[in-house]
Write a structure and sequence with these properties.
The complex is a heterodimer of chains A (317) and B (159). By secondary structure, chain A is mainly β. Chain A is built from 1 helix and 26 strands. In chain A, strands 18, 19, 21, 22, 23 and 26 form a 6-stranded antiparallel sheet that branches. Chain A has a 5-stranded antiparallel sheet with strand order 6-8-13-10-11, with no helix packed on it. Chain B has a single domain, classed as Sandwich (Immunoglobulin-like), CATH 2.60.40. Chain B contains 1 helix and 11 strands. Classes of the chains: A mainly beta (317), B mainly beta (159).
Chain lengths: 317, 159
């Protein structure tokens, strides 16, 4: 019998928005016929079937990538959503655990349900690990945590892997086809669906250190004699490459570089990605601050995988 | 007293109809289609009782005419409205003895063969699909002899 139900349920997922549990299906036929030249009509008995409750759910992560944690910055939530893909109202328990392979653990993780249904964690959302959903209803929920203490952060990799699990409280055995007589909507039988009334999704918190950007700098010397010795009067060209990490979108990036001792900044030598910038504080992104003897380049945003190249020149005194 | 006579009259008329049709009965039953796999991995379809039906289930409705009299039953026409929430499965209407199967898309006002059934659309008409059928009709070609049965059936999927 179990095998029969299991196979039967394989086709059910296509009908997540199926007929509601408790619906009564009646079939009745009529027969017209003639006996002894007399026309007659009779009806069949009424065949009545009641739709049982199919227990099913689906959980998704709402985060498109790993969620970054930074030191001294409030930890952003991990966001998920749960959908009742069964055909009747059901209550679900929400659980989470930190995978053993995680590089660090977060101690104060709490579950919040998206009470105001805006798919964003906010003050209206309530702390809860249970949620009631009508058939086909979806609701977001969030995992909120405090950032890890430094000593809990892994040295090589900085990920905290979370698994959230939703379990039907009507069924939820984890066994497809398990029947709960009379436990469904309106006293109908309830049956665990393809996933056994259980589903799960993964989320990742990634600790990103302060070093969001990678800076490489190189210098080239060219003296007035055509050589590369750093003698007085030689020109040093600095080439600086700034790039973002693979998950980083850095904002409000301002590059500052003090002019090295015993050198003099070469007027209008500042370039960004090969394009000359003026030294004045004007509409372009570059400035030579003569008062503080430094150059500044306002890079604004650097998206993941983007590279900014800055160049300027100094003369050795 | 008048009321009493009227009541008796109703009872007698009902009894007369019952007595007249008692020899010919129509019994409808439903079964659920399930796929079972034997120990060799071979799959087959079995019909089981519809103790519980779930969205996506395929239900087989069987209507059996029993002629419990000596006289033959002639010109038998069975009409089965497809229940709400059920979707007729194409070509599933069967009969054990020769018959013609017709369908309706307007709850039995008009019956015809599939190629002649049309559904009105914004741009005109289209040929009706099995999903559109509201009724199945079986027109039996031969009389049913006395003390014989005839069975027709169709399949529908629970939405």
């Amino acid at each position: 019998m179990y095998r029969i139900l299991l196979i039967l349920l394989l086709g059910v997922t296509l009908y997540a928005k199926g007929t509601s549990a408790g619906t009564v299906i009646n079939n009745i036929a009529t027969l017209d016929f003639i006996v002894d030249d007399t026309p007659e009509q009779i009806e069949s008995n009424v065949v009545t079937d009641t739709v049982a409750q199919l227990i099913d759910l689906h959980i998704d992560s709402l985060d498109s990538s790993d969620v970054h944690i930074q030191k001294e910055v409030p930890t952003p939530p991990l966001s998920f959503q749960i959908t009742n893909t069964g055909n009747g109202s059901d209550k679900f328990s929400l659980q989470f655990n930190i995978k053993a392979k995680s590089d660090f653990r977060l101690d104060e993780i709490k579950l919040y349900v998206d009470t105001n249904n805006n798919k964003k964690f906010d003050a209206e959302d309530q702390l809860s690990d249970k949620i009631r959903l009508k058939a086909d209803e979806t609701r977001a929920f969030f995992l909120i945590a405090k950032g890890p203490e430094d000593e809990k952060i892994g040295k090589r990799h900085n990920h905290c892997y979370i698994v959230v699990k939703g379990i039907s409280l009507t069924g939820g055995s984890g066994i497809a086809g398990k029947v709960y007589p009379g436990k469904g909507v309106s006293g109908t039988d309830a049956v665990d669906g393809e996933k056994g009334g259980v589903d799960e999704a993964k989320g990742v918190w990634e600790y990103v250190s302060q070093k969001l950007l990678f800076i490489q700098q190189k210098s080239t010397v060219l003296n007035q004699f055509g050589g590369n010795e750093p003698v007085s009067g030689a020109i040093i060209t600095y080439d600086i490459t700034i790039s973002a990490g693979k998950h980083v979108h850095a904002r409000d990036v301002l590059y500052k570089n003090p002019i090295p001792n015993a050198t003099v900044y070469q007027k209008n030598s500042l370039k960004l990605n090969g394009k000359s910038l003026t030294d004045a504080k004007d509409s372009d992104q570059g400035v030579f601050d003569s008062k503080n003897n430094l150059i500044m380049v306002d890079l604004d945003h650097i998206k993941k995988y983007e590279i900014a190249k800055i160049q300027f020149k100094v003369k050795i005194k | 007293m008048k009321k009493m006579l009227l009541f008796l009259g109703v009872v007698l008329i009902g009894s007369a109809i019952y007595a007249k049709n008692a020899k010919v009965t129509l019994v409808s039953k439903s079964y659920k289609e399930v796929i079972v796999t034997d120990k060799h991995g071979k799959k087959s379809i079995k019909l089981v009782d519809t103790k519980k039906v779930l969205p996506g289930d395929i239900i087989v409705y069987r209507n059996t005419v029993n002629n419990a009299q000596d006289k033959p039953v002639k010109h038998m026409v069975l009409n089965n409205p497809i229940p709400d929430h059920m979707r007729y499965i194409a070509d599933s209407a069967k009969c054990e003895s020769p018959c013609t199967v017709l369908y309706s898309v307007d709850h039995g006002k008009v019956f015809d063969t599939p190629e002649n059934l049309k559904i009105k659309t914004q741009n005109g008409y289209r040929i009706a699909k099995a999903d559109d059928y509201t009724n199945v009709k079986w027109i039996m070609k031969n009389p049913l002899p006395g003390h014989h049965t005839a069975t027709v059936s169709y399949k529908a999927k629970l939405k």
